[in-house]
């Protein structure tokens, strides 16, 4: 077949194009001005990006050997002037600019618009620290304004439930990119404010993207809607290095969606531990207090200067006993709650309590003056002895005392 | 023995309960109270602790999606693909 014999392979044709382009003097050592977009520095050190203006885009490669001469860190949205050679990347059939050097050329139009809006809203006080509301310590119902299909949502749900397993999350599907996005964000912030939704907090989130993809968050109406929302708003847009107008307007800016959950959702285990700590401290101080009071009474009983020693002492002792019983009854209540799954602390305290042995069938015998009897020698036939049982007490009289 | 008094059900927010609890613990530890005052504070503290615990348990683990019903009113529906059971393979 003649046609077949005349046909070039794709590689041959691509070579031909490559040779033509690279032989064209106007395309070698050429300078070109444009806005940087999709800027990526690969781990290899090579930099890949696109230069663009209103009418066209140009792929660019900045190899590490040349990129090392950079005196600034370019970013998406920046206007730059690149100098380099046009070449062809055969595998992809793509012509591109092999950049040798790059200079900043003032700020990109988008960036300039961003700065203008930021300055305007800042002057109005929209970003004032005083306007920022504190987040609730214990949010129970958290609204997530984000794309229902994005990775950001999945990350947020995972982190939130890891930290607080019984958290109620309410997803409010929201457009987070494209020309319709700002109006949709404003509308969904209004939904989030509905009183019967009872949100404690909402998070406006979007995963990383180019500056154009994040542009919906640099919108004046979005910024105002965030401030007007009666529920505190956390913004979590793009990557750590991306700052948007929404971030400045929000009550709290999180570097990423997962970080928003780390910042806004408390860790349940820590809260439980804190509560148990309070209980422990209260009981420790009260126990020490009762011990001190008892010692004071014993010291008083030892002194014979009181003319009618027993009456006031008895009253004091009774008061003390009642106090001890109240403490004990609280501990018992708490151990019941422990069984209900609210913490084993009550049980632990119960185990430490000297009264705990009573439940196992032991009894405590006390003389009429309240001292605990440890030996039969401490009492005598005819003496009154009070026997404390697990439930209630017996008032008894000694028949016989064998030491 | 005294009957354990039924702890009063406290209708306080978690944050109020915890901040009052903090204050109570500090006062108890300061130790310049009468025994009766100490016991009263202790009881109040135990009640607050219980109230705070209840608050922590109040929420229900779930993921809902806010959508519009036929009449255009926002309604909550469980969100497919993100329910707790589905988290665990």
Characteristics of this structure?
heterodimer; A: 403 residues; alpha/beta; five-stranded parallel β-sheet; 13 helices; 41% helix; 21% strand; elongated; B: 89 residues; alpha+beta; two-stranded antiparallel sheet; 3 helices; rod-shaped; disordered N terminus; disordered C terminus
Structure description:
The complex is a heterodimer of chains A (403) and B (89). Chain A has helices at 2-6, 10-23, 64-67, 109-124, 151-163, 181-192, 220-228, 245-249, 257-264, 268-302, 310-342, 345-352, 356-359; strands spanning 30-41, 47-52, 57-62, 79-89, 94-104, 141-146, 168-173, 201-206, 233-237, 252-253, 364-367, 384-388, 393-397. Chain A contains 13 helices and 13 strands. Helix content of chain A is 41%, strand content 21%. In chain A, a hairpin with a 5-residue loop joins strand 1 and strand 2 (47-52). In chain A, helix 6 (181-192) runs parallel beside helix 7 (220-228), helix 10 runs antiparallel to helix 11 (310-342) and helix 11 (310-342) packs antiparallel against helix 12. Helix content of chain B is 51%, strand content 13%. Chain B has 3 helices and 2 strands, in the order ααββα. Chain B has helices at 14-30, 35-58, 84-87, and strands at residues 62-68, 74-78. Chains A and B meet through helix 5, strand 7, helix 10 and helix 11 of A and helix 1, helix 2 and strand 1 of B. Strand 7 of chain A pairs parallel with strand 1 (62-68) of chain B.
